[in-house]
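# nightly structure sweep
# worker-07 picked up a monomer target from the shared queue
# config: single-sequence mode, recycle default, output format = structure tokens
# input follows
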Amino acid sequence: MKVRRQSIIRKLVAGDELRNQQELQVRLRDEGIEATQSTLSRDLREIGVLRGRDGYRLPAADGSALSSDSRLHAAIRRELVGVDVGGTLVVLHTPSGHGNALAIEIDAGQLEGALGTIAGDDTIFIAARSEAAAQRIAKRLRAIADIS
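# output follows
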């Protein structure tokens, strides 16, 4: 069932403009598949689907898989608009609705010194192992995004 569901998700994302998980759930129901929000989140993460300004899309225009590092860099350049550090937390700012997509890529990219992320609509908290690690993470993300 999972393989079939993920195959249909790939087809739907490649062929339609889907802006959120609710739209995806409706389209899956039309295909005869019921899926919870948590199942969809897990499927989207495993497939590598990104959420951009125009909705969900596959990680590469040709549908081929990119390395998690390449996807991370592309997502950071596209989505990251600000970085702040407070102690062992790195706080990232994205356009509205883009926090979760970027957090998925950050988690997949396994940033050195990062323990994990918590994502909101337009903000991501990265828990770092130490204050020094938080500073290194922030510096790296700013450099990739080309922001001060």
